[in-house]
Design a protein that fits this description.
The structure holds 2 protein chains of 2 kinds.
Chain A lengths: L1 H12 L3 H15 L6 H24 L7 H16 L5 H23 L4 H21 L16 E2 L3 E2 L3 H23 L2 H11 L1 H6 L4 H27 L9 H14 L6 H15 L6 H15 L4 H9 L5
Helix pairs in contact in A: 2-7, 3-7, 3-10, 3-11, 3-12, 4-5, 4-6, 4-10, 5-6, 5-10, 7-10, 8-10, 11-12, 11-14
Chain B lengths: L3 E12 L2 E7 L2 E3 L3 E5 L6 H8 L7 E6 L2 E2 L5 H6 L2 E3 L12 H13 L16 H10 L15 H14 L4 E5 L7 H14 L4 E5 L3 H7 L2 E6 L2 E6 L1 H5 L2 H14 L4
Parallel strand pairs in B: 4-9, 4-10, 7-8, 8-9
Antiparallel strand pairs in B: 1-2, 1-3, 1-5, 5-6, 10-11
Classes of the chains: A mainly alpha, B alpha/beta.
The complex binds adenosine-5'-triphosphate (ATP) and magnesium ion.
Magnesium ion (MG) binds next to helix 1 of chain B.
Chain lengths: 320, 255
Amino acid sequence: MRDAAAPAILRTKRPPDEILAIAALAALLVAAPLAIYPFLLAQALCMALFACAFNLLVGYGGLLSFGHALFFGWASYFAAHMAKGFGWPPELAIAAATLCAGALGLVAGALSIRRQGIYFSMITLALAQLGYFVALQVPFTHGEDGIQGVPRGKLFGLINLGDDFTLYYVVLAIFLFGLFGVYRIVHSPFGAVLKAIRENEPRAISLGYRTERYKLAAFVLSATLAGLAGATKAIVAQSATLTDAHWTMSGEVILMTLVGGMGTITGPVLGAFVIVAMQTYFSAMGQWVTVIQGAIFVLCVLAFRRGVVGEIAARFKISL
Amino acid sequence: MTVYALETEGLTKEFAGFSAVSDVALRVKRHTIHALIGPNGAGKTTCFNLLTKFLEPTRGTIRYEGHDITGARAADIARLGLVRSFQISAVFPKFTALENVRVALQRGRGASFDFWRSDRLLRHYDERARALLDDVGLDGWAERSAGEMPYGRKRALEIATTLALDPQMLLLDEPMAGMGHEDIDRIAALIKRVAAGRTVLMVEHNLNVVASLCDVITVLTRGRILAEGDYAAVSSNPAVQEAYLGAQIAGDGHG
Ligand SMILES: Nc1ncnc2c1ncn2[C@@H]1O[C@H](COP(=O)(O)OP(=O)(O)OP(=O)(O)O)[C@@H](O)[C@H]1O
Ligand SMILES: [Mg+2]
């Protein structure tokens, strides 16, 4: 009898839809350089990974950070400095900068996680602003100029990242690693507790969960993945600048996640591509891009709270 | 070792000058079912919140199994085996009934920080979770989303989730509110059954249930203990009749 029930559980508990969506996305991204500049795509992938990292915290942990640029921007600086200043190979620079972002996440999380709702958001914003001003002042970030001319180097001493196509596929591998990481975290024993806390924190506490620890762990994981995105971006763009640490970057990642669909695995990826495409192809419109972005933001909040992917998932009763 | 599972001394909670709970000395004997009754706003839920440290007491001490837990944190009190349910039914709405119970089982049995493993691991708990759901009459509801269940079913699910922790002591805040007669009978029988070897403190407005289920009754009015004893003693107490039972029985046609 239990055997007969098992496939039904399989279907409801572990919808393969998310995995199918990830696979479809991966296939699309493998073919994408045929149509679009790989350099542009690689940059978009960094933003997409950033949005996925952010979504892990807000979509599954219910924690809205206003300061995720802190991790993205600083990981970008670290990676740029390690690759240029220290002459480290790209894989080492990215890995080390990612870990630094995780450590930064531990500090920022420990300071903010006890606060609820808007107070949490405000503390993350304040910490990110602090990080921004430090970036403006310390010498190695080179203030307004940023770190320029970061060498891409050779991956593992073998693969020359100077070639845009090669670079793109390396970035795609990093991105897919991050995306699958988010999927794994969300569908892990830890993820189950995290979602329970999002659903009803007092109840989770009454069951004996020390909820701050789980939220802190989610914060650190999210910061680490945001760091991976920022560090990769430094190698792709061959620079690290104040823009990446600015509060508008924290805002952009919220917008991307919201447009694509908070709490869906693939939504933030779509959201990131939509926003990056707008900024790229409408760049001739100057300031109007910001206005359009604002309008989209308002529209999402008012009418499409679930975001594009979220709406599709809700319509077809699947999880994506 | 004391005969009391839970003891409070001078327990007081003030909200901006107004005393919701005043100088309460509550003693719950081990392995009994103890009722906390009183009119609306008497401070019963506030008491529960203090005992489980969801609220910080203004004054007073709380001892659980001889240990002072006044300074403990809510999650740690649950870990000591003192687990509460909520008056407003508290489920994880987007989870299925099965997943609700599983979250509780998972806490007791570990792996809760493993973010790199598949949650397929949690299927080990399915059998136990289903048994717990069957116990509260939720067989056939396992795959339903908790948020879409009718109110009475949610309450039953909450009890199943609480029992999943196998607590030494249960604090149930109106576990049968909003249930039909059949459900009430089933949950009453369930509470009686699980109370074997456990201590239960429950808030309940249904006096039939209290009379048949509870060994000791404490009556609370305006944050203070008015009377205490078994049902016969409490219901014949004139002060209680005036403050609570009289009004209740007069207004309660089937009571
Ligand atoms: N957080 C709070 N802030 C201010 N007053 C509160 C708070 N919580 C409860 N109260 C007040 O304390 C009093 C006791 O409330 P409590 O919820 O404990 O009553 P109760 O006995 O559980 O009532 P009911 O039978 O309606 O559930 C009420 O007057 C209530 O308004
Ligand atoms: Mg109450």
